[in-house]
Amino acid sequence: MRRKNMGRCCILLAGLFLTGSIFTGCGRSIAEKNTETPTEPVISTESVSDTVAVTPILNPDGNTLETRFSTPEGYHRITCEKGSFGTFLREYPLYEDGAQVHLYDGSLKGNQEDHAAVFQMELADGDLQQCADSVLRLYAEYFFQTKQYSRMHFRLTNGFELSFDNWRKGMRVSVDGNETNWVSSADASNSEETFKSYLQFLFCYAGTLSMGQECSPAELSDVQPGDIFLYSGSPGHVVLVLDVCENENGQRAFLLGQGYMPAQQFHVLKNPADEDNPWYYTDEITYPFSTPEYTFDEGSFMRPKY
Fold first, then answer.
1. 236: phi then psi, degrees, rounded to nearest 5
2. What is the sign, positive or negative, of the torsion defined by CA atoms of 302, 225, 119, 87?
3. pTM here?
4. Which residues share a beta bridge with 289?
5. What's the pLDDT tens digit per position in 31-56?
6. Closest to 126 measured CA to CA, from 3, 210, 229, 236
7. Rounded distance, CA 193 to CA 13, Å?
8. C-alpha span between 35 and 31 (Å, rounded)
9. What mean pLDDT value characterizes the chain?
10. Are the CB atoms for 214 and 155 separated by under 8 Å?
11. How many CA atoms does the CB half-sphere of 282 hold within 13 Å?
């Protein structure tokens, strides 16, 4: 099994993780017509002016996905059970409004125009934690925080299933070409350090190709937090559905987030169709589907089996 090349979406560079805590933790404007009623008789007809009542999507003081982004007019967030992955995403801490996206080496990403917020998620040291890795990390953090260790198993590019249950029991993976096998070589531990070593190995040998092995097609009308748009290639790309809302007719809208290459901080994407509203409306989605930095073909909407 080959490690990821520099040109692929996820690249191997061993290293330490940047310091920081793993966990701490739209509006379509509507026109309202205001007509002035004269208090005295008038001879000429005054023109009626239309004013627009704007419900701002962005709350700059919000420090989580749910508190930073309001839903569009006429929409409400779908119900997510307490302790669910959807709730985990909604409560994930964000950097302050206006934060820029940094690359793995601390430099600024060249394109600072296409994100609406930045997640306070750690980056691995080196050009390692890219698009698929960032999505895998969010799922893994959720399982680790909620102690659902048995659910933390992801496939490597060769199809090998990397189980955290085995990893925390002291098992490690030997790699010989494309052959991978479990070996007992470490002490059993549920520590954060053990978790990070698991992630580092996962990022080395997983990516959009392996992610394609553990997803199934989904219906966009039933979009849920945790769904993805995926091109499973080399290089490929993936963006994650972060939050979902719906109107009284059952039509849904969603927020998207991504990591990218070179490795960079995970961020909430803007909607290219509306500079002031990052929500994407299911009834407006056509293919090819354009996000700020990638275009997905029909059939790319998927649901991970994690």
1. -130, -165
2. negative
3. 0.83
4. 296
5. 332 333 333 333 333 433 344 455 79
6. 3
7. 18
8. 13
9. 86
10. yes
11. 21
